[in-house]
Design a protein that fits this description.
With 123 residues, the protein is an all-beta fold. The chain contains no helices and 11 strands.
Length: 123
């Protein structure tokens, strides 16, 4: 019912910057939170940054001070500005949206994931 689509990934040099975007669409009644996750080969998927509908933000310690999550509520879109990138940031980045979707008789919870966008930090 609700889809999310990421964009903005690519190849960047160490110390460089990249901006990811994620747009949610579909039968959305409300969004409780959106966030960015990443997963490198052989590693666990981890939450990188999240933002709630109220504007509360959280980051994994390794990206604090370098990454910034922001939102455009009118467009159901979140962004992840990534600065001072290092090779350790190389991963597939996934967008997640949680909230409630509309239906004929009631709202339903949703937890939707994008298919991911590759971020590679290399010289």
């Amino acid at each position: 019912q609700v889809q999310v689509v990421e964009s903005g990934g690519g190849l960047v040099q160490p110390g460089g910057s990249l901006r990811l975007s994620c747009a949610a669409s579909g039968s959305i009644f409300s969004i409780d939170a959106m966030g960015w996750y990443r997963q490198a080969p052989g590693k666990q998927r981890e939450l990188v940054a999240g933002i709630t509908s109220g504007g509360s933000k959280n980051y994994v310690d390794s990206v604090k001070g370098r990454f910034t999550i922001s939102r455009d509520n009118a467009k159901n879109t979140v962004y992840l500005q990534m600065n001072s990138l290092t090779p350790e940031d190389t991963a597939v980045y996934y967008c997640n949206a949680m909230g409630r979707s509309t239906s004929y008789y009631a709202t339903r919870r949703f937890d939707s994931w994008g298919r991911g966008t590759q971020v590679t930090v290399s010289s």
